[in-house]
Amino acid sequence: MPRKSGTGCITCRIRRVKCDEAKPACQRCTSSKRQCDGYLPEDSTVTRRQLAAAARQLSVVGPISQALSQYPRHRSHSPTPTSMTLFDVFRNLTAPSTASFIPSRFWTRELLQLAHSEPAVWHATLALGALHQRHELFWQGQGHGHHNSQGLLDQAHQSYARAVSYAQDVKDPTRLLSLSLALLSITNMMGRWSESQVHITAGHRLLKQAGTGEETMSAAEILTRLDLQAMTFSDSSAPYAYDNTPRSVYIDTLMRQVERLESYAQAGTALFGLMRRFMLLGETLVADDGELGEEAIIQNLMQDIASWESKMADFERNRDPHNAIGPLSIRLYHALLRMCLTAGGYGPEARWDKLLGYFERILTLAELLWSNTPNTHVQSPFSLEPGLIVPVFMTCQRCRHPWLRRRAIAFLHKIKRQEGMWSSDGAAVVAEKIMEVEGQVYYTSDLSRENSPSPMQIEEMSWEEWATGDGQLPAKTSWAGIPRVPEKMRVRDTLVMVEAEQKRVDLSLIMSPGEDLFRYTWRSPNGDGNVLIRKSDRFLIIVIVSVSNISLAEPQSERIHIWGGHDQFPPG
């Protein structure tokens, strides 16, 4: 009978030092700034000598992946070299790149350690590693249809299925919560939108069961971020389930109880919680019967935003936030939230024209963030959480000043990022279509200036000024001599149906209500495109522009189909 292995974390056992066995990470490792690689299962028979031998064989990564291969929980399913490689992709690329925007230990520590003892989590990380590697192949020119790409996709589907199967064995709600976040990230990347909604709903339910405490804090933060991400990207085939989502999350309550912020991770999650409440505002007001209730909801949100800004001022008083990724990330999403608050949720699309200062700030912050992001030597960065794409796409959609709009689209083309279900290249293509439908032109020559320095430097405002100001930002860009897009030509909303695996988008555009009947001609490359658009001041006329082959994989000619009707969508 094999003897039981020694106790202690993997790192301390390899180093032959006494381990205090604190969990999830031992104090000996963390105090010496080493990465604690967690613990083997209690029934493991792996010796220190075997762990050390595995570590010596590694050329790039640490011992966790190889150590796992020595003690598969289900002995009949030993990890293969392929699965070890995919786990290492997740550990060394996916997790760090995801946590680089707003810091989090969930991806870089907690989920990795959970993979030691939970086969469901192990297989979930393999699926994410396969999807990340497939993403890299696409940007290397080995996209849809390539045998390597298809093999990785098959591997991702198999690992996801195994993770769901093994989930039946996980009974602890805290562990199930972490697993649900990994599964949600997988379905976001695969484009399995209805399953993503299931995992989001499950995440909120599991957090309620597990309770909010030290063990669930990191997972609760990630749930808030991924939930907001889902609200910003609602596929028409599976719209976000507003009826099933809580009106507030743990971070909203916590921020009313604490006097100060503890970290940029907490500050970022609190900001995402405020943005989430803003996006739920319309749904909340529709469900509310009284005018006083509406005013109270809005007033509470505004007070909480000002309180958060005051806490940020105290938090950064003795810190240098300039050009650091965490502070820049928070300022980017703060500018987006403040811009949306200033614009309001309703009104003509022309109301956005007065917010050029916000659009300038968002673009400059995004460009600074991009230039300060560490070079990971990969062709296309990859993250499971929201990052640069959402604020910049919002700028493309709402900013009708052609200079800023072209700058935003060129930036999306340049960064080649994947952030959850958001693709920067896909967002850029959709933004170009919106610009064309609104009668503006995106010049491909703009891409030749993609590496030019930003024409504007950010003018910093103190957090106290934000908390007490009127919400207006001065702009360096002017409308002087620039023709404005008529209200009746403006796109109010976009609806998408995304085939993630094929890198294709079906795009539907909802036009701003107007009064006139007019003819708009859109010329596709093959010369088609006579489009009749009817507007009414009494009914919302929905015009669907279905670009059935906006393909990111390879350029093709375009076919445009238009449907119009009173408050109805096209058949099918």
From TrEMBL:
Keywords: DNA-binding, Metal-binding, Nucleus, Transcription, Transcription regulation, Zinc. One of its GO terms (molecular function) is DNA binding. Pfam families: Fungal_trans_2 (PF11951), Zn_clus (PF00172). Residues 8-36 form the Zn(2)-C6 fungal-type domain. InterPro entries: Fun_TF, Transcr_Regulatory_Proteins, Zn2-C6_fun-type_DNA-bd_sf, Zn2Cys6_DnaBD. The keyword Lipid biosynthesis does not apply. PANTHER family: ASPERCRYPTIN BIOSYNTHESIS CLUSTER-SPECIFIC TRANSCRIPTION REGULATOR ATNN-RELATED, HYPOTHETICAL CONSERVED PROTEIN (EUROFUNG)-RELATED. This is Zn(2)-C6 fungal-type domain-containing protein.
